Amino acid sequence: MAVPRRRHGDLEQEILAVLASVDAPMTPAEVREELGDALAYNTITTVLSRLFRKGEVTRELVGRAYAYRAVQEPAAVTAFQMRQLLDHDQNRAAVLTRFVGSLSTEDEALLTRLLGPTGEDDAS
C-alpha cells in the first residue's frame, strides 16, 4: 500500500508544530523521532535549513549539530524576510525609496518616528 504524498509545505508545517510544542531547541534527530515518521534524517535537516533561511526558526550550535527553535512572533518572521529581500538587491537605495514611497501616510509617519533620535516608537 502506497504512503500518501504530502502536499507542498505540509512537512514544513509539521516540523514547525513539533518545534512550537516544546520549550527547548531540538536537533534534527529529535524532530525526526517526534514526527514518528519514516523520513530520512537528511530530509528533516534540509527542511530545517530552509525554515532557517526563511526566518521561521532560529538555530544554535549544540556540539557538532544545530538545534532549532520555532520563531513564535510572526512580525519577526516578516522582518527577517524583508531584510533578506533587501540584502539580495545591490541597489539598496532604490529598494528602500520604492518601499517608503509605497507606504500609507500612517505607516510612513510610524517609520519616521521609529527612525527618530531614539529609534523607538513613543506609542509602545
Automatic annotation (TrEMBL):
The keyword DNA-binding is annotated on this UniProt entry: yes
Gene Ontology molecular function, alphabetical: DNA binding
Keywords: DNA-binding, Transcription, Transcription regulation
Top-level taxon in the UniProt lineage: Bacteria
Pfam families assigned to the protein according to its UniProt record, in alphabetical order: Penicillinase_R (PF03965)
InterPro entries: BlaI_family, WH-like_DNA-bd_sf, WH_DNA-bd_sf
Entry's Gene Ontology BP terms: negative regulation of DNA-templated transcription
Family: Belongs to the BlaI transcriptional regulatory family.
Record's protein name: Transcriptional regulator
Gene source species: Actinopolymorpha pittospori
